[in-house]
Amino acid sequence: MHVTSKSGRVFDLPNAEEEAHIREGIAADPDARELSDDDMTRLRPLGRPKADATKQAISIRLSPEVIAYFKAGGPGWQTRIDAVLREYVASH
């Protein structure tokens, strides 16, 4: 069976017979096992921790000179722009 994601990517999912064959293979593998609830609680979540204060995505037009200046500092240029704007807000 083919399933298409929202982004247009096509996934080929196994049919019932193929799924049964896969499960038989898993059951026959001594190194494969189902994770218990205790195992699941000990797993580390993927990705970075959620921030206390999340940021809001926006679209903003900046002059090429401003963008070039901040990008020249390497990765994190958007964070640096945010820091400058926060400093301005705090001083005004």
Layout of helices and strands, plus pairs?
Elements: E1 2-4, E2 10-12, H1 16-28, H2 37-42, H3 64-71, H4 77-91
Antiparallel strand pairs: 1-2
Query: In what range is the share of β-strand residues?
Result: 5-15%
Question: What does the radius of gyration come to?
Answer: 24 Å
Strand order of the biggest β-sheet: 1-2
Structural class: mainly alpha
Low-confidence segments: none
Q: Estimate the global geometry from the Cα principal axes.
A: elongated
Distance between the termini: 60 Å
Largest sheet: 2 strands, antiparallel
Mean pLDDT: 91
**Percent helix among the residues?**
40-55%
Count of discrete structural domains: 1
Beta-strand segment tally: 2
Count of helix runs: 4
Characterise this structure:
- The protein contains 4 helices and 2 strands.
- The protein has one domain.
- A two-stranded antiparallel ribbon has the order 1-2.
- The mean pLDDT is 91.
- The protein has helices spanning 16-28, 37-42, 64-71, 77-91, and strands at 2-4, 10-12.
- It is mainly alpha-helical and 92 residues long.
- The chain is elongated, with a radius of gyration of 24 Å.
- Strand 1 and strand 2 (10-12) form a beta hairpin.
- 0% of the residues are buried.
- The N and C termini lie far apart (60 Å).
